[in-house]
Amino acid sequence: MGQELRLDTFKQLYLKVKSEVVWLDHLILGLLVWLEARYLDIHVEMTVDEVLKELELPPMEDYVTPVITERPSEGSTSLPEVRITAPWYKEG
User: Among 60, 74, 73, 91, which Cα is nearest to 82's?
Assistant: First the structure.
């Protein structure tokens, strides 16, 4: 995958600071690609955090604690059998 800039701001910045020295141009491009990636990561993270703060979740009134049961295993192992079920579940 080649190095390329995605945002117009960074593209215009590269064109402004571009020189006649090829190796320096590659160095500048690499630095701008890295800065752009970091900028996008931080911008996305901040946007998601803002949206999550504004999001209102309904109250969890119907939350039910699961039933955890443990009994000896019927197999040849010495490990117990552990089950996690809802309180309304009936073995049948």
Answer: 73
pLDDT at residue 76, as a whole number: 65
Q: Answer whether 72's CB lies under 8 Å from 80's CB.
A: yes
- CA 73 from centre of chain: 39
Which token pair is 6?
A: 């995605």
Q: Domain coordinates of the chain in residue numbers?
A: 8-54
DSSP H helices, the chain, are: 8-17, 22-54
Condensed to tens digits (0 to 9), the pLDDT of residues 25-52 reads: 999 999 999 999 999 999 999 999 999 8
What's the token pair of residue 28?
């500048």
pTM assigned to the model = 0.56
